[in-house]
Amino acid sequence: MTxxxxxxxxxxxxxxxxxxxxxxxxxxxxxxxxxTPIIQSATYTFENTADLIDFMESKTWGDGAHxxxxxxxxxxxxxxxxxxxxxxxxxxxxxxxxxSGMAAITTLLLTVLKSGQHIVMTDDVYRxxxxxxxxxxxKFGIETSVVAVGDYDALEAAVEKGRTRFIIxxxxxxxxxxxxxxxxxxxxxxxxxxxxxxxTTFATPINLRPLEWGIxxxxxxxxKYLGGHNDVMAGVICGNAARIKALKDARGVYGNxxxxxxxxxxxxxxxxxxxxxxxxxxxxxxVAKYLxxxxxxxxxxxxxxxxxxxxxIATKQMTGFGGVVSFEVAGDLQTTGDFIDRMQIxxxxxxxxxxxxxxxxxxxxxxxxxxxxxxxxLGINDNLVRFAIGIEDVDDIIDDLEQALAxxxxxxxxxxxxxxxxx
Length: 423
Ligand SMILES: *Cc1c(COP(=O)(O)O)cnc(C)c1O
Fold this sequence. Notes:
With 423 residues, this protein is α/β, with parallel strands linked by helices. The protein has helices at residues 16-22, 49-61, 77-90, 101-112, 127-139, 152-158, 182-191, 204-207, 241-254, 260-270, 273-292, 311-317, 333-342, 372-377, 394-406, 413-422; strands spanning 2-3, 11-12, 94-98, 118-122, 143-147, 164-170, 195-199, 217-221, 235-239, 297-301, 324-329, 347-348, 358-360, 384-388.
């Protein structure tokens, strides 16, 4: 860690937690406040006409760094301070915050793409991202091809030089925690002159920094780990300075800015990101190991386990495997719901990445309107559980799983044979 007294902005800490607490913002803040003040103002005043003209001149003809704000939709000092810190954490030149993860994703795609262009996307990206591309962008003449995650030959075949503008993927994915091979992805993109966007909401910059692997845009639902307390919604895009500037300009037009109070909560969350994620990585790994050895569990999906299809690439790329563990219990839709109901620590809720553990049965949450057969075709089994681990003590979590699993009835011999046959 290097430290330069007297210049609040020239600090270069190397540890993730030091960076999460200190980097990005000026050490000297308004009114000697230790924390970043919440500038709760919709507009900003000019002292007189000469002051206004000075600002307009620097904005119109200057280098773009006007040194002050004009109107709330175009920028806010609290939001900017948090953007600086997020950029530092991702190793990006700049970052732009939005009112939700989806606001970040839709703004990025609407800003960069134009009619006639084409997107290639892996098949288990966030459902709403996929919905946005295939339905809304489709209406504007932007086509999307969806390829199976992990099939890089199919990905390369789907890319059309000159037409494909974007390759979109996610890592690790929901709910099977597939991990994208960023080196291969970037190689295909560079060869075909297209841009890459990776949603690393599940990884956080503590576990993976895709820009270091050559990815163009990293996006997060900051609602999850970055905020970390299930109490605020936000989204962020990280990338190079020129592109982020264009995205901030677009935000001023779309109007999907982040509220300064929400930005304050994100910054407050980021300060403990390193602690939380390290704990969640550790607990999730222990839980995954425990579940894998349990007779009432059919299968566990966790990239930290050697049994996961992407274990090797996850080990190479990531510094932690994350806090989400998915698994299939030995039972059907009803047995699985009953098991979840017996769990006492996690709440039943969508989302992930907060201090509270959350549990859900995807068949009844994201895929409720589908039949068992339709879900099977989408690769979602009725007995699948997604467990987003919080910061509770690992022993308590494992005790809770133990008692809830004990309630699952012993399986009839015929069921066991049926499962073996299926595998
Ligand atoms: C939650 C989530 C989103 C959407 O973010 P919001 O903040 O809910 O808009 C996008 N991608 C992933 C992977 C998510 O988990």
